[in-house]
Specification:
Layout (H helix, E strand, L loop, with lengths): L5 E5 L5 H11 L7 H10 L4 E6 L2 E11 L20 E9 L8 H12 L5 E5 L4 H6 L2 E3 L6 H5 L6 E5 L10
Parallel strand pairs: 4-5
Antiparallel strand pairs: 1-2, 2-3, 3-4, 5-7, 6-7
Length: 172
């Protein structure tokens, strides 16, 4: 899939079984209930993307407006979004091996930055993905208050933020 035989599109409810399967394959040690994915899509449909290629979903990005420096523990429901969000929080970006190295991950970050409409992006880097996130403009934010919740994501988990993208576009 080195050539662009893929495209990001808005996620649909029908994509949720594929999202769950991809999450299980990509993050086997970090399970989340199917309801978590469904809730993110319901609360922030404009910030949830599916990567389609070869007639199948090859990856996904789940994001939602949130508060800066507040990480949701793994496998937890949000129930509601803040009235005055401070970041667009990237809950997960997962690609099947066939889609890795294709530029799809970087394209998802560009699309989410446009969707963020002037908000910085935030995420938890897991499993040694810090190099990828740094290449996308993210930097670690040290906050001892986050240590306990970050442990639920594994030993290498880091809270990271990317400054506001001034290119504009999109909507949350």
């Amino acid at each position: 899939m080195r050539g662009k035989a893929w495209a990001w599109r808005s996620m649909r409810e029908a994509d949720l079984p594929a999202v769950s399967a991809i999450a299980s394959a990509v993050h086997p040690g970090l399970p989340e209930a199917d309801g978590v994915f469904a809730e993110r899509l319901r609360l922030a449909p404009g910030a949830c993307l599916a990567l389609e290629g070869d007639g199948a979903v090859l990856g996904y990005a789940l994001a939602h407006p949130w508060w800066r420096g507040r990480v949701v523990a793994l496998d937890r429901m949000l129930h509601a979004l803040p009235d005055e969000p401070e970041v667009l929080y990237l809950h997960d970006l997962a690609l099947l091996p066939a889609a890795r190295g294709s530029g799809a991950g970087a394209e998802a970050v560009r699309r989410l930055a446009a969707i963020a409409r002037g908000l910085p992006l935030a995420l938890v880097s897991i499993g040694g993905t810090e190099v990828f996130w740094r290449a996308q403009g993210f930097a670690p934010v040290a906050d001892p208050a986050l240590d306990a919740v970050l442990r639920s994501y594994g030993a290498q988990a880091l809270y990271m933020e990317r400054a506001i993208d001034l290119s504009g576009g999109g909507s949350c």
